[in-house]
Each structure stands twice: as structure tokens, then as C-alpha cells.
Amino acid sequence: CLEMQRVGVFLFYDKDGIVDGYIDHYLKELRKVTEYLVVVVNGKLTPEGREKFSKLSDDFFVRENVGYDVWAYHDALDYIGWDELKKYDELILANYTLFGPLYPLSEAFAAMEDKKCDWWGLHRRYENRSITTYFGKPLKYGYLPEVTLSNFWVIRKKLLHSYEFWHYWANIPPISSYIDACLYHEPTFTMTMCDAGYTFDTFDGESQRGVYRTPTIQGAYDQISRLKVPF
Q: For FRET with 104, which of 75, 98, 133, 154 sits at 20 to 30 Å CA-CA?
């Protein structure tokens, strides 16, 4: 997997700043598929957590807990630098909300290698045109578009080095709630990039379309056991 030069950004948050053991395992696996790994911490971090991240990542920093994962990624990309990002073939954007991996990440990357897409994630949320609002807020596109969940994205070279990708992150709006993150990041990123001619795919594929309303909930066992989704 290291023939592909990858840079990784991992968002961590815990209200008390405690780094649990599953994070150790997650980062050790991420290190196996990245050349350079940055951890960005929202809010607090214990001294023990600092010690862990100093060993488990190439670099890390702590920022104010504002903007949720969206602005944490934004600040991490600025921290790495856009010129530096051009040296890599792929960018991984991942966060602490996933538990695993239960299978080696190298297997997931090998399975996705021949998929023709500009970015991919683990899970797909299917389009639903009957949903026009989210927690009372109108959806930007008038319905819930199909997206890949932003807890684990792999951005490939063509998109990573593009003007559209840079422009998106340079102009993201303030994010003040989890609802805002769901409304103004996942669907907006997906639709913006698809409208610009880029394509996405997901590791879980489309076999659960029409079977489960929310595959990551109702179809979790099927995803892990049959589809070998690593988280």
C-alpha cells in the first residue's frame, strides 16, 4: 500500500481529552497505509493523550472545539499546506467516530484499487427525495442526495490536486451544530464535486440499496460479516 503515497488526517474528540485504547489500534493501522499522518484534536487533550499521539502520529495539534469535524479538517489541511498536499497521491480524512478496523486497512485499499472514482468512503447513504428537511431545516438541494459518509474519505489524486477541491475547503461556511455539518458538508461536498464532473464510490457498494433504510444501522452485521467493511 505504501507504493501509493498517502497523507492522512485524523480528527479526535473526547469531552475529557482521554484517548481510549481503540484509538491506538485505529492509528496504528492508519500508519500502515500512510506516509504522513496528522492528528487534529478538537478541545481538550490529557498529558497521557499527548504522549500517545506523539508516538502514534507524525504530527498533531490541539485546536478550539469549534466547527466540528468539518473545520478540524479545514485547519489540518491548512496546517499541512496545499503545496505539500500536491506531493501525495491520496488524502485520507478520517475520524474517531468509527470503531476498528476489524480487518486490515490494506485489504480495503486493495479492494478499492480498481474502482474508477475520484474519492471513496466506507458507507453509502442512499438518495431520498421524500426528505426535504432535516430537523426542521430545509435541505439545500430540496431533497437528501446520495452521499458517502464523511467519517472516512479517501481523496484521489485528480480531485486532491484540483482547483475545485481547494476552492471547496477555502469557502466552507461556519458550522455551529451537528445538524449544520450534516446539511452543509456531506451533501454539499458530494453534489459540488459531482456537478464538477467527479465521481465517488463506497466500499460497501450498492448491494444493500432498497434492503435497509440506513445500512450502517440496520445492516451493520451484514456490512461487517459479508461485505468485510473494516469498521
A: 75
Q: How many CB atoms lie within 10 A of CB 16?
A: 9
Amino acid letter, 181: A
pLDDT in tens, 24-57: 999 999 999 999 999 999 999 999 999 999 999 9
Q: State the Rg of the chain over Cα.
A: 17
pLDDT in tens, 104-158: 999 999 999 999 999 999 998 888 888 888 788 888 888 888 889 999 999 999 9
- Calpha distance 7→31 (Å, rounded): 10
Q: What is the spatial distance between Cα 114 and Cα 227, in angstroms, rounded to a whole number?
A: 17
Taking a C-beta distance cutoff of 8 angstroms, is the pair 120, 200 a contact?
yes
DSSP 124: E
Owner of C-alpha cell 458507507: 123
Please confirm whether the linkage preceding 187 is cis (ω < 30° from 0).
no
**What three-state secondary structure class fits 171?**
coil
Q: How far is CA 212 from the centre of its chain?
A: 22
Alpha carbon of residue 39 to chain centroid: 13
**Residue 225 to residue 204: CA distance in whole angstroms:** 11
